[in-house]
Amino acid sequence: MATLVLRTVKGTPLTNSEVDGNFSNINSEVGTVFNTANTINSNVGVLSNLTTTEKSNLVAAINEIATESSSSVAITGGSIANVTLSNVTVTGQGISGITTANVTELTNLYFTNARALANITLAGFYDTVSNAAPIGATESGTTLSITHLDSGVTAATYGNATTIPIITVNASGHITSASNVTLTSSGGGGSGLFNSAIAAGGNVAVNTTAANVFAAASTAGKRYVIHSIHITNIDGTNPAEVSAQIIGSTYSNISFGNTIPVPAGTSVELLKKPKVLQPSDYISLNANVDSRLHATAAIEEVTGTSHFGAGIDVTSAATFTDLHTATGDSVIESVLLSNDDLTLDVKARVVYTDSSNNIQGYYCFDLIVPADSTVELLEQPKYLQNGHKIRVYANQANRLEAMIAGKVI
Does the global pTM surpass 0.85? Predict the structure, then answer.
């Protein structure tokens, strides 16, 4: 800083030479300040040119901007290390060369419309719950291809890949195992012919005393999809009749078969469409005579609560009763009507409405359900919007029962 001669300090008027000196010193100081400003401007673009204090201030400013724009941050080029990723959604055509070295936790990672997910290296990828050895070290390999295989998909879903990894995630969202499997081009996987998702069965002799062909476990967070209940008359001479009910938390002794005849030496399939049980629900069967009928069931056990099933008894005449209210956009697989009156018919209407009970469409209108019979309404699945309802109407009380099976999508 240049020194100026001030009259207030000197106490007497300044000489001409002192005034000239002050002007020279002021011009020199202006130039110094200008050059310093240029240096600062050039160093702002080069982080390494800044002093430690300047770097700290700049980093703090960048962090503040990132915080303010956390919903839209783009990173182009370079690399990121020693980070924790959570709730990351990846979209686009392809992702490759993702290396998890120095990444200690990867939770809630979703892939949307990603046609290729390749070369994920698991080196240094630890289970942060147990802090075990790197995942992949004890698995079938440390490099995985494509993406996670959900039940019911085929190779075409993932760009006709030949192998995919199955990744196991625990309740805390941490990956606990990974292994490769080989895809086939079609079939299996929980839908269609050769349904490999069916992994349980039930069997029972059907007599006049009611017996359970299947009872769901009490385990929370499970659903049980009943794909088949097959009844065989093992008496070579005499016919028999079978009746079937679902009993449980969302069913109240709801029938899906009433005194169905099974001729001697023949078999009957009770289900045209699958039914869904919740924990502790069960299927009860009984016959009109002993020692003639035998039942076999096929069951798919599903983890999660997206599948749903329910049944109601329509106890009021000429008014609509709620059968189901969608808790999310849903596929309705089955709506079954049963007339449990042994002698009298009943007329039924089944509609879907908005949340205010305004009718949006019909599954049936004044359909006659004969005495002691059942009718499966849906030959193909139907869509139900979140919050919308399926409601049932009968022209007579205490004759009609209705049952639904579906899945929130």
Answer: no
